[in-house]
């Protein structure tokens, strides 16, 4: 079984692979937490937030797929298993059970901010290493920042 | 924050809630593993299996959503967080890194069979407790069994 | 004009016919009340509830059609005339004139709960009498219970 | 809860409100009777009439919505509850049970003619009071007259 | 070539396999006879019946596919070859050549009734053996009974 | 460059041209202000109002196009330049910077009311001058009044 | 064969019937001439005019259908036979054979102007006789005037 | 204005041009008569025939366009003006006013048969002269014959 | 019940009728066998062949319908009953039970070749008898030959 | 009312905010001027330019929305009010009244060139300050330059 | 690797293969030249010709695919490589660089005429050899001749 | 005929023009070779590779269009004529005749790799010269690399 080859140097491949794997973990956990809140939400703002969370989950799943396929395209195997997410994710903890609308706004604002901060570091890290991957990270960061604003506007 | 009420007895609600929560864990992990294989797959059968795995992931995500919304509708809060999946899932382990097509067929056959076995136990358990939830479990089991056949036909 | 025949025994046909006719009355009145609230709603939550009520009306109309066509398919003539609805419906009364958003949430929660209670009795009643009709009732009860949760989550 | 305001004078608002409320009752009852006939129809002309009745019901529902939303837009609360329909509707009575195709044609011809007669009176009444509402009534009367012709052509 | 396995016991697999194979034969022959009548139909009611028959054929083909795929999914090979249809089908005979509209109504009423009778026996037979297959049979029986009513209403 | 000719008298053309040009200014400014609020909105009701404002902008743009093309069709050149909007528009002022949801509801209620008042004057003015243009103004006024109600219901 | 009845007085029915029959002749001839020019056109402006003529033909056919169905709906039989068009049409003559683009613009400008002039007379004539038919004529006149402007702008 | 040239000999161009011009006259008159019957139809079969006639008109219009564009493509100017149709058409006469369904079936059967007879002569005539045009005529004849059968089956 | 008439001579009608009936038998049996293989297929190439067979079945059903409707259009009643297929079909036998992918490729290659051979004989036979039917046979033969190549390329 | 926060430094936020606000003014004014020309255009090239201008307006509106939402996402309130456009826009002046096609080509070429020049300066300015915003500006500049070429090719 | 077989004789296969390969070369070069002109076009007629050329390219690509797949279906390998196009194509030369609209019309008229001439020779050549391929060539020649007329009409 | 102007310096225009012209040659040749393999492919993997190649061709054609239009937008005339492709392309040679699936995988892997290498050089070259063109090259390189991976995974 021959490994997938790419034109990146070993150094650049490692830097880019780390950035993409980190982004993958963030995005999969964002999708899982987004669904958790989508289901367990309560409060008068149920309907608009219920719908908004699904938009975020949809974005996270789509971008996770692009990021993982980009990783394998440069010869790095992505890892999106549940155990990896639990081990590596840095997102805020969310308790089980019902969760009120105001609490969801606060938690999601924090989570999105922390993901965006790491994404911006990955954009810097990949600028020299692989501008093609960087372009992908820039695009998804713009989308995440738009959702960050829309969630934040409701505090 | 008043709890969501339902017309089920406490006993039936507990039985049905357990069945739905178990199904949710199976389906979320199936989606994560399916994507893991979708990305890291290699071999001559790459393309058809790559596509087939996405069909399975799509099914698992859709049914996970129905199962979780059914749980909350009967007053039980579903739990689909990564840590819960890692703790409760009984699916076979899949190693990180590239994975050959023949291996994927074997692993997915096992995984689907073990999920189907548990789903059939849940169908029995909910027959008296809540026929409405049972109907949902029957429907998704039919879909899982169809994929089990299609994967198995390739051994 | 020969009557429509079916393969059900007279006894089973009567039991099933009653269940379907009762479901039809519930669903038509639900659609009428849903529209009444959709039009006369006021309050800051106007837009999300306005849209949600239309989802419920759409469901009620579609299922009323399925239930009525099922009745005639087993040889029982359904009755969905306004006078029959007024005479037989057991839904809560709703006053004319403007109605505030909080009030709508409370009334719709009650109405959906009372419909679901009767639907579950009909599911039991038709289990032996006609599993085909029972299957239809199970499916629509699942949809009603999902809306019950979503409305209730806003109390 | 502040009432919805409009720019119409009290007198014009009353005239227009009456016209719209009357139209709403006619249209909702037309939809209920159309469905009743759609389900209980028999005879060799079953299929074309079965389909035609659904076209009429679809029109009646859509226009009832426009009429009711127009009423609330000028500050008059529409009333489409079942009891109001039974109390105020002037449409011909239709017996329960199976109904032959020829009978349906006759009854629907009468019903449409009586609705159209009242709609034309409402068009006259609103000409000065509110040309915007009149324009809506003119449009739906054209559609009703088209169906009147098509039903009538089958006598 | 390893056989497709399933989790059903040998006994339940045999019962369910027989029910599905019987349903398959009924549905394929229904589609062939429906097309035969669709083409050779004559009489004043040509157009509505010509269209209605195509609706029935479309249903029969779609459900035959679901039934056959369900059979193979439980490890039973479906048999839909022409010789099997001829040997096993119990549907009424239809002569070659032109066939008048009144005759088509009579023949199709008989054929649908006999299929429905056997489908209800299969629903009973599979209740214990395989509720997943039973659910599929219940759903298609509801559709067949709806067409039985619509055809019968034209006698 | 020959001017576009029309069949209206000079007097009627002037009256109608003024009405259409006035409507154009109102609609373009409504679209600009609607977008301004759509972007700078804050508060818990962010999402439903954000979406509702886009519905209003979409309507205003579409009708502005119809009004302007109607003007040129009768030989009057419409003027929709920014400087003309600033000079002629009578809509309420909206400050730059963030704007809370309650404020948006209040401002949009006022703006829509003032536009509707002028549109009704234009309907009167064009009744004799050009019933074709009047019909266009009647239709768009109905749409504006519907939005006026929906915004106002949230006070 | 009972005649189609309507609620118009004999006098109003005659006035309206004449207006609609006249409009029908104009629209059918417009469609035939538009196609004639569409096919035989030559010159550098071939493509844009070729497409624009088809827009006009499409409009004329659609409106002819509405006008004719309106006529029969009020109890007047429309007449759209070729011989009637030849006998009654007042449109400019168009020679057989190839026709240059500049000529098409000139002829179509004249034809549209003459149709619009007659349509405006019909709008006046039907104002009292039947406002429902008038509304239909006003709408199609607006569309014709839009095309008149667009064609005229190319002189 | 240079004439459109083609590669056909003068003789073949004349034969083919005649065939296409004849087909054009037949198809335009078929569309006009089909609409005339579509509007003035009466009787119990109103709805299915009303729809069927529109299918025929749609076919005739589409094929007339293909035939005319084919003519000009070989350098022959098609002529579809009303006066040409009246002068050259050989279709049966249809009286003005209401027309019963049985009569429509009879007339349309005759008309389609006569058109088909001439189309088959044109197929023979163009076999040597221009097989490209012949192919177009064969295709439209198949469609006309299908409609001929469907209309004829209703006698 | 008058027979459907056509303009073909008795001799040509017989030749063409035989060709079309033969084609109908081939196409219906192809659809049945294609589905049989679609369901009972096994092997690593399961998925692409499973999909490819459905393309073939879809083609066969669509063309069978065109062929049968063409037959009745020329006055010959098509016969597509199961017993006729068994009696007249010349396609290779396919055993019941599971069938490996390589075997399916071999069998389908043979079956398509034998159908194509007969279709080409029918093209010759109908050249004089009825070029309209011949054109239909030429078109479907091209599609069959394309599938023959695609299947054959996998040997 | 808490301001929207972002991760940019105050300096970078100011630079990026200025670039986005400047782009917003350019795009809104481009849309207003494009519509002005779309309506008041005259000349032989009316139709192709009329359509092309609408493509440009559509682009400008869509990108204005993206730019404004990007601004608020980084904590800068966009300002798209008419008075701001008049005050800040640097686009060429366009006179009121009819405008010939050649003039439109010249003016639009100038306007697009001046916008593109400023957009390129903004691309440079944001390269360090915020690559995410820069990416948005690059994409819209490519679209503007494509239209600049297409307009310019017609000089 | 077994060659693809077909039922054509060696002689007919050679004749047909040559015709199809020749058509393939013509169509691919037409698509390349069409795009070249589409991109480098200048002049006041830029927009309509720019769009028209894309219609031609779209046709050429679609038909090239049909022709090549037809070749391989009869056992002849098509050759569409760039070197083959350069070696075998007989189309007129087109210079690099900008090309004025009048020049494009002239060149495309020549190119289409020369392709049509060869296509007609191929239609003759395949009449006996393979009527199925001939039918394909006839169809695409009709489309090419339509474009030839439309381009030529602009000289 | 005035040249298309742009805001790039002569030096930057030359660098960017060379990069875009080189990309155009690569993409057109990729499309031609992809189609050649699509048609002449043999082997058991026929169907999935046949479809995959069409995805690549579709991408190459779409991006070639974007690249060429970008070139002309900056004032450089693109050259996509067959002779230019033959002269300038550096892609691997592909023999005429049938080509086995394994061979296609190998050749396409090489071709995609060589194109990607050159694209990355072009990305570097345009970074200073024209970031707008660079952005286009980055996007298409990402798509090419995704296909490179998918093809390569099948070795």
TrEMBL record, chains A, B, C, D, E, F, G, H, I, J, K, L:
Gene3D superfamilies referenced in this protein's UniProt entry, alphabetically: 1.20.1260.10
Name the Pfam families on file.
Ferritin (PF00210)
**Per UniProt, what is the name of the gene that codes for the protein in this document?**
dps
TM spans (from-to): none
Domain Ferritin/DPS positions = 18-154
Q: Which InterPro entries match?
A: DPS_DNA-bd (IPR002177), Ferritin-like (IPR012347), Ferritin-like_SF (IPR009078), Ferritin_DPS_dom (IPR008331)
Q: Which organism is it from?
A: Acrocarpospora phusangensis
Classification via CDD domains: DPS
GO MF annotations, alphabetized: ferric iron binding
- Stated name of the protein: DNA starvation/stationary phase protection protein
Task: Indicate the family of this protein.
Answer: Belongs to the Dps family.
